[in-house]
Design brief:
4 helices, alpha+beta, four-stranded mixed beta sheet, 201 residues, hypothetical protein PF0899 fold
Length: 201
C-alpha cells in the first residue's frame, strides 16, 4: 500500500509539474508575444516621431531660408534706395543751393512764375527770403507790382532760407519755390534713372 501511495503521489507530482510547466510555457509564450507587439508598436511610434521631427525640421529650414532671403532682399533694396537718395541729395542740393543764391536766377524764376500766376489771378502775394532783400533792386520789385497793376503784395520773410512763395491774397494756398522743393521735384524724375545707372548693368 505504501508503494501505491508512493506511485499516486509521484503521478500527482508529475502531473502537477507537467501542468505547471505547460502553464509556464503558455505564460512565457504569451509574454513573448505581447512583448513583441509592444516592441513593434513602440518601434512604429518611434519611426512616426522621427518622420514628424524630420518634416518639422525641413519646414523650419525652408521657412528660415525664405525669411532670410526676404530680409536680405529688403536690406539690399533699402541700401540701394539710401545710396540713390544720398547721391541725388548731394548733387541736387549743392547745385540748387547755388542757383537759389543767384539773384538773376531768382529774378527770372519769380518773374516767370508770377506771369504764369497772373493768367489765373488778378491779385496775389509773394513772400521772398529776407536774405534776398538787399540784392533785389527797387526797379525789379516795381516791375513785379506793375505786372499785377499794383495788386501784388511783396513781403520778405526772415524764416525763409531761400526762394519765394506765391499765394492768392486770401492765403488759401501757397506755391513754394525753393531749393528743397525743386530737389524733391527733380528727385521724383531722377530717382529711377539714377538707380538704374548705379545698380543695373
Amino acid at each position: 500500500m505504501n508503494d501505491q501511495l508512493q506511485d499516486l503521489l509521484k503521478r500527482v507530482y508529475e502531473e502537477g509539474v507537467a501542468k505547471a510547466n505547460a502553464e509556464a510555457e503558455m505564460i512565457l509564450s504569451k509574454a513573448k508575444e505581447e512583448a513583441g507587439s509592444i516592441v513593434a508598436k513602440a518601434s512604429a511610434e518611434a519611426e512616426n516621431l522621427v518622420q514628424t521631427a524630420e518634416k518639422q525640421a525641413l519646414d523650419i529650414k525652408k521657412n528660415t531660408q525664405s525669411d532670410l532671403s526676404l530680409a536680405a532682399n529688403h536690406s539690399l533694396n533699402t541700401i540701394k534706395q539710401k545710396i540713390t537718395e544720398l547721391i541725388l541729395s548731394k548733387t541736387l542740393n549743392a547745385n540748387l543751393g547755388v542757383a537759389f543764391a543767384d539773384v538773376d536766377f531768382i529774378k527770372k524764376l519769380s518773374f516767370e512764375a508770377l506771369q504764369a500766376w497772373k493768367e489765373n489771378s488778378a491779385t496775389g502775394s509773394i513772400v521772398i527770403s529776407e536774405a534776398m532783400k538787399p540784392k533785389l533792386d527797387e526797379f525789379f520789385l516795381k516791375s513785379l507790382k506793375d505786372l499785377f497793376d499794383n495788386k501784388l503784395q511783396i513781403d520778405f520773410s526772415p524764416t525763409m532760407k531761400q526762394g519765394f512763395e506765391i499765394s492768392p491774397q486770401d492765403g488759401t494756398y501757397k506755391l513754394s519755390f525753393n531749393d528743397e522743393d525743386f530737389a524733391n521735384l527733380f528727385k521724383t524724375y531722377l530717382r529711377p534713372r539714377t538707380k538704374e545707372l548705379l545698380f543695373e548693368s
